[in-house]
Every structure is written in C-alpha cells, then in structure tokens.
Amino acid sequence: MAEQETTALTTEEKIKEAATKIFIEKGFSATRTRDIAMEAGINLALLNYYFRSKEKLFEVVMTESLQLFLVGLEEILNDVNTVLKDKIAGIAIHYVDLLKKYPDLPLFILSEVKANPSWLEANSNVREMLTQSNFYKQLEATTQKKVEPLHFLMNLLGVLVFPFVASPVLTGTEAADKAEFNQLMEERKYWIPIWMEAMLKTLSA
Amino acid sequence: MAEQETTALTTEEKIKEAATKIFIEKGFSATRTRDIAMEAGINLALLNYYFRSKEKLFEVVMTESLQLFLVGLEEILNDVNTVLKDKIAGIAIHYVDLLKKYPDLPLFILSEVKANPSWLEANSNVREMLTQSNFYKQLEATTQKKVEPLHFLMNLLGVLVFPFVASPVLTGTEAADKAEFNQLMEERKYWIPIWMEAMLKTLSA
DNA sequence: GTCTATAATTCGATAGAC
DNA sequence: GTCTATCGAATTATAGAC
Prior knowledge:
Two copies of one chain form a homodimer.
Chain A: H1 11-30, H2 33-40, H3 44-51, H4 54-70, H5 73-77, H6 84-101, H7 105-115, H8 118-122, H9 126-131, H10 134-143, H11 150-170, H12 175-201
Helix pairs in contact in A: 1-2, 1-4, 1-7, 6-11, 6-12, 11-12
Chain A binds a DNA duplex through α3.
C-alpha cells in the first residue's frame, strides 16, 4: 500500500505490506494468516506478536485502504475555485490513476463494508462527506431540483469505478488484456467529463 | 432464488434455497455449512447427504446465479427488431427489476468470479455473448470507430449495476433508506436511456 | 525479536442408529 | 431420509526455547 522505498522494511512493515496485498486480493474470510506470514517472509508466531490477531491486523489494513481511497477526494470536492466540470475532470484523473495502481481496491472495500457496515462509521463517514460537499451543492444547483443529484453522483462513480470492479468479468486474464484495459481507462480521463456534461444537459432539454 | 410456491419444498430444495440466500449474502469463504443447514431447518449431515460437499453445493448456486443474471439479456441484445435506444431501455427495465429483487447478486458474482475466473468459461462466456451481439454491432455502428464501443458498454453497466453494488456504502441501513433507494432505482429506468443517448451524441459534436 | 512446537477452536465431512 | 455424535483436517493463537 505505502510507497516502496529502497530502504529495508522493518518486520512490522513487511507484515503490514503482505497483509494489505493478500487481504485486498482475497478478502478477510478467504485469507489465511499463514499466507500473510509466508508472503512477508516470516512465520506465523511473529504475526501475532506484532498484531495480536487476524482481526486487529485486518483493522489496520481496512482503515488504511479507506483512507487511500478517500484521500485527495475531499480537497477536489470542496475546492471553491473550480466549477462542476473541473471537479469531475479532477476526480476522473485522480481515480483512474489511483485504480490503475490498486485495481482491486474498490471491490475489496465494497465487499468488506457490506459484510461489516460499521467500517464506515468507524472511519470517515463517506455519505456525509459527499452530500455536504461543495461539489454536491454545485450538483444541486445544476440539476435545479428537476432530479435527485444523487443520480449523477451514482453515474459518476458508476462510469469511473465500475469498470475496475467488473474487470474480472469484462476483461481477459492475459497480460495483453490488462494493457488494453489500462489503455481504455486512460482514455476515460478525457471522456468522463464530457459524458457527465452531456448527461447533465439532458435536464435543460 | 426460484419463485416461492405455496406448495411445500422438498428437503433438497430447502437446502438449495438456504444455500443460495447465505452464499449470495456472505460469499463462499465466509459461509459456514452449519449456517446453511440451520437456515434450511435441517442438520449438517443432511446437507452432505444431498450435495456431497460445500463446493458442490456452491457450484449449483453459482451456476444458477449466473443464469439468473444473464437470462433474458441475450434476447434483448439480439432482437433484430429494436434500435439501440430500445435495447438500452429494455436492459434498464430488466435489470432494475431484477436487482431490486436480488440486490446482492452483482457483488456476489463479481467477487466470486474474481476469486475463481473459471466460473465464466465453465458456464456461458459473457464476453463473447456481449461482443458478438446485435446490440454490440449497433453500438459499433453508432460510435463509428471514433471511440471503442466497449466504453459505452461499461458506461451502461456502470450506471445500471454500480448503484446496487455500492448501496452498502451509499445508502443507510434503515428501512426508509432502502425504500428511498428503490425509488431512485425505479426513476433510473426512465433516465438511463436518455443519459446513454446523450453520451452517444457526444461523438457527433 | 524470532523461531519451533503445540494448544484450542472451528469447520467440513462421515459413521452409524433409527 | 433424517438424526446425533464424532472424526480429521485446517486454522488461529500461544507457550517456551533461543
């Protein structure tokens, strides 16, 4: 999760890196602490020495994953110097870059939040952050109460995040498929603001 | 999964219904066969008597889940009597209705296909069904090679399916929130064809 | 701090009575 | 077919040597 440095990692960091990789890939229930220990190059006892339990270790990973997904978003959403379309463009670039790096992150978060909704309240409240934002107010102003602004938030997240969530279904498993997929995602940085603008314009017609 | 009849279910059916409910809710790894047995109102031994193993039982549920998600789609996609916008409208109505009934279905399928991609080849090949369809050809004709038609397929699935996948994050847990969410989804039957049309029109500008 | 060995528990599966 | 009781394997967690 954190940036790889050339400096050696401490044992605690090695375990956390390994746990992050495997938890995000397989989810909490399908993950074995032995697999994490092996991935970290240490043994099982040491994992419990540092993190006490599988649950505690997962808690660390989940908290950091939510932060990773949300960091940078709030600034874009509440920037008073940008109009709606600029914010959409900013969000698109930010998330395409982030999810190209961590493509499994959204499915992981969605699955684990569904399994345990308290993760949201425990960390930062996503719903409030979205609906209280300057972005959302601009959305309300644009939709003019003709339609629920939440629709457009769903549309934006849908076109932005869903391809990554569905890539195991939509794309092949070969390396060429992955490259092609990433190319498509890169193109979407350009198109998503245009598409969103077009969707918003359907209200004035 | 199957329609509830007033007639009593056989034991095998009771187990399958219970398994479907719990597997879709919690996924393969987080599900305990004991929980399925309890949900079915029988005991653990009987589950293995009918289905031999957890894996075999899951296989039945997964196959039926994929069919449930895909049945009805192929007819819409390959209807030679409808234009693109009609097909989009048909898909929107079909999936909003389906997912209001089975909101956990997409996240379940996406998670389990990611964990075991062979589910797709084992059952019906989704990718081929989509890209070989009359719908996809109409999409290609409309986009005129200016942009990959796959983008619009992702957009459609994104605006259609993502709200259900993300509802644990976007919507509250109370009953009123659920009703409000379903109301929004109902509205989307009307809007999605309009939004998709607007997105496609960005190519002619 | 790190390891090996093992305890304690959970879980899938089966034996065997009815 | 259905049940109770239990086995055996897998998994988390800990004890104790170094």
